[in-house]
Amino acid sequence: MPEVTLIEALRQAMDEELERDDRVFITGEDVGQRGGVFRATVGLFEKYGAERVIDSPLAELSIVAVGIGAALAGMRPICEIQFADYIFPAFNQIVNEAALVYYRTNGEYNVPMVIRAPYGGGIGGGLYHSQSVEAFFAHAPGLKIVIPSNPYDAKGLLKAAVRDPNPVMVFEPKKGYRLIRGEVPDHEYTVPIGLSEVTRKGDDLTVYAYGMMHYYTLQAAEMVAQQDGIQCEVVDIRTLVPLDKETVLNSFKKTGKALIVYEDNRFLGYGAELAAILSDEAFEYMDGPIRRLAGPDVPGVPFAHTMQDFFMPSPEKIAHAIRELAAY
Amino acid sequence: MAAPNKETLLDWYRQMVLIRRFEERCAELYQQGLIGGFLHLYIGQEATGVGAVAALREQDHVITAYRDHGIALARGLDVNALMAEMLGKATGVSGGKGGSMHLANRDLRFWGGYGIVGGHLPLAAGIALKAKYNEEDEVVLCLMGDGATNIGYFHESLNLSAVWELPVVWLVENNQYGMGTSVARASGATEIVQKAMAYCCGPDGRGMAVGPRLDGMDVIAMYDGISEAIEHARTKGPILVESLTYRLEGHSMGDPQRYRTKEEVEEFSAAGPIGRFRNHLIEKYKNIGSRLDSIDQEVLDEVEAAVEFAQNSPDPTFEDLTSHVYVD
């Protein structure tokens, strides 16, 4: 199997879905002629034309809302928001329309669309190019949310998202776009939305993570295995909504200890809900405090690289948290 | 555009009276506590809705804001299902989930009422994009109130429709008040059509057409004006039209209406659209009075039957609460 970067896997997914289904189109700022701010759509404008890879004005609410309207009317839009930080002008459209229409019309209309947005820190982007926004949207039933951590899942989940009859948000770890490489098969495949994956087996404790933090967690798990003999189980959440509770709970029932790693602010972040579910539904199996390692509760990821490093969980910080929890 | 014949005019009369009686009955039911929440009546604006919707072809689309009962009735939604929705019954248009402000019907290409002011405008652009993308001869009629023209959605949507040359008719129902704030107190331009001029002058003559200010109390003027606008939209691109109309009731039930005088309301009431159209028909056709009287009675009976249907309909169940969150 050929090895590709995470962003190349995403590009392949969009290429194949454009090829497969005429109803699929892409819109967003600079997705066409320029090939995307991160080059995720490079070559697609030339291959499919301006009618299907549509450059939009710099207007996020319209990018998303046009996608919703087109999806209502039977299309399969992929809307790109350049940075997750820019998604808030479209917040109303996403939570009040995309998430609600199917429910509100009692099944009369649905919104089969994809919203892609690069998220997260680690590239020195500062306050408005580093945010993790998944918790805002995970709070709105009606939306599905996936965050891939590797090229295989990125391609398979994005293709599944395009085919899903619901609105699916795909948050992509921009730090990993070119850093994370992996094998992607030549043949057609999708990764089902709604399934988490145990990506490392272990008995001592479970670490839950997604996106860039999953990539770091695997590194941390290797460090503590070699240096301390601690055997972590690692669960890649992959689909945040709807959550694969079975996989999440089964691992915890085996290890009895949970460390949840996420890059977003700690308070009311996605990991808070995971912690609540574990304590509600697997209390009898608990063998230590449910720990969270997350960004501090400051309003944003600061610009200075020193402060960015303070903010972000890293393999070393994750390893430290694993050791602490293992010793409990 | 053929001039409407006698039977067509009588049908418009029937629709206008139906809207009026439906709304009056809703007001009574609201006062009796049988309709809850918020109720926004279309009384006074019947000529605008009926004339505009009459100009649509079967393949065209219509989408509107929260004051949507009149548009739903004009487009032909089932009166029983509408009244049942008002009462929150399982037999309602959306099974009681959406309520008064979110009526919709896919078969009739009625994309709904929308509860967030201006939020449906970019969706209309998306529906129009679908028509253009598939090279279908379809036009989207998007109605909004004057209040919606002060919100960002309006400007993004107009701009997008101009840049992408979308087949949309933007119809501003200028009823002179956004809730309790008059146009003069809320809008930099008191003639709403002036706002379209900002998007009218693209390269090669592309862009938004600035349509007329129509007499929104005259159903025939509305039909003629919107028919021309639809022809423009399908052959040339987007156009914005303004209807000068008047809301004879409060913004919603229980509005003390301190923002306008009784004399002003009485003046518009005396020149109301139904009486004016009735007089027109009596002048134009000899001995039509008895036909009009029998239409009046038929409509009364139809609305009464709808109330009976709604009151005898079952309430939604607990299972209905959790249905239609996601498409399986």
Strand % of chain A is 15-25%
Instruction: Give the name of the CATH superfamily of chain B.
Output: Thiamin diphosphate (ThDP)-binding fold, Pyr/PP domains
CATH architecture of the largest domain in chain A: 3-Layer(aba) Sandwich
Continuous helix count of chain B: 13
Main β-sheet of chain A: number of strands, strand sense, barrel status? 7 strands, mixed
What features would you describe in this structure?
The complex is a heterodimer of chains A (328) and B (328). Chain A is an alpha/beta fold and 328 residues long. Chain A has 2 domains: 3-183, 3-Layer(aba) Sandwich (Rossmann fold); 197-326, Rossmann fold, CATH 3.40.50. The model of chain A has no long low-confidence stretch (mean pLDDT 97). The radius of gyration of chain A is 19 Å and the shape is globular. Chain A is built from 12 helices and 14 strands. The relative contact order of chain A is 0.12. In chain A, strands 3-2-4-5-7-6-12 form a 7-stranded mixed beta sheet, with helices on both faces. In chain A, strands 9-11-10-13-14 form a 5-stranded mixed beta sheet, sandwiched between helices. Chain B has 328 residues and is an alpha/beta fold. Chain B has a single domain, classed as 3-Layer(aba) Sandwich (Rossmann fold). In chain B, 45% of the residues lie in helices and 10% in strands. In chain B, the strands form 2 sheets. Chain B has a 5-stranded parallel beta sheet, with helices on both faces. In chain B, strands 4-5 form a two-stranded antiparallel ribbon. In chain B, helix 9 (219-235) links the parallel strand 6 (209-215) and strand 7 (239-244). In chain B, helix 1 packs across helix 2. The radius of gyration of chain B is 19 Å and the shape is globular. The termini of chain B are far apart. The mean pLDDT of chain B is 95. Chain A binds chain B through residues 25, 51, 54, 56-57, 59, 61-62, 65-75, 77, 89, 92-93, 96-97, 102-110, 112, 141-142, 144, 165-166, 242, and chain B through 61, 94-95, 97-98, 102, 104-106, 111-112, 114-116, 119, 121-131, 133, 152-153, 156-157, 159-160, 163-164, 323-327.
